[in-house]
Amino acid sequence: MNQLYYGDNLQVLRDHIADESVDLIYLDPPFNSKRDYNLLFKSPKGVASEAQIEAFEDTWHWNEQAEREFDELLHQPNTSVADMMAYLTMMANRLLELHRVLAPTGSLYLHCDPTASHYLKIVLDGVFGKENFRNEIIWKRTTSHNDAKNQYPDVTDTIFYYGKTEAAPFRRQFIGYSEHYLTTKYRHVDAEGRRYRLSDMRSPSPRPNLTYAYKGHEPHPNGWAISLEKMKALDECGRLEFPKKQGGRIQL
Fold first, then answer.
1. Spatial contact of 111 and 27, defined as CB atoms under 8 Å apart
2. Looking at the domain that runs over 9-38+53-163, which CATH code has it been given?
3. What is the pLDDT of residues 99-109, one digit of tens each?
């Protein structure tokens, strides 16, 4: 609690973090994107150190460390990951330790980009179990790029969300609508003062089983969007608005 560790996170996890002691993990690992990242350390007085340490190189080579970690991975009993590149070996060993320290009700969020996301998903499924995968969250990280020469621009990243077990809770997020949104999007008010909006009930494509007349009202040529049984149920609940003009169509 309230501690910052410096060093290889694999060693820190093994030496300092107890089993099932963490409730939430967010990690933003290297993406294997062929870029180098350097960190320049300074003394407490702000003077640059003579030793500049390369924080990490975002291209993983098969070397003695990768061979050692890959050998450890092959002997882990709780993952089916086998024939992976050195980058995935590095990630898999650390994900195994993160799985160990995560509480049964804990959750993990892993941020990555399209460079390695599809590979990491396989590793995450192997370590956490595909049944504990909750979401692939796509977030827009920028508004535009100038790299759309022979491809669509890269403007999104991925966050994989896993629970340690099915007992990991999910708290739904809500935010109230603004008054402007309510008055512009929900313009209609019923007899009880409740706001609502109307939706088109036509089917997006012709469906013979959805083509029927209801209370003298004919459907769109594509048919209704719902079955006759559903139409009757919505009508009983007062969820339908019937047209006031001849030839109008029922709305939901």
1. yes
2. 3.40.50.150
3. 999 999 999 99
Rg of the chain's alpha carbons, rounded to an integer? 28
Q: How many CB atoms lie within 10 A of CB 89?
A: 24
- How many CB atoms are located within 10 Å of the residue 51 CB? 7
Give the amino acid at 201. Answer: M
- Give the number of other CB atoms < 10 A from CB of residue 73: 20
Q: pLDDT by residue (tens digit) across 162-190?
A: 999 999 999 988 898 899 999 999 998 88
Q: Are 240 and 251 in contact (CB under 8 A)?
A: yes
Contact 187, 197 (CB under 8 A): yes
Which residues in the chain are classed under CATH 3.40.50.150? 9-38+53-163
First CA to last CA distance, the chain: 53
Among 236, 139, 156, 249, which residue's Cα sits nearest to residue 201? 249
Instruction: Give pLDDT tens digits for 28-48.
Output: 887 655 555 454 444 444 554
Q: Supply the mean pLDDT for the chain.
A: 82
Dist CA 252 CA 201 (whole Å):
6
b/e 115-148 (16+ beta carbons within 10 angstroms → b): bbbebbbebbbbbbbeebebeeeeeeeeeeeeee
- Distance CA(29)–CA(9), nearest Å, equals 11
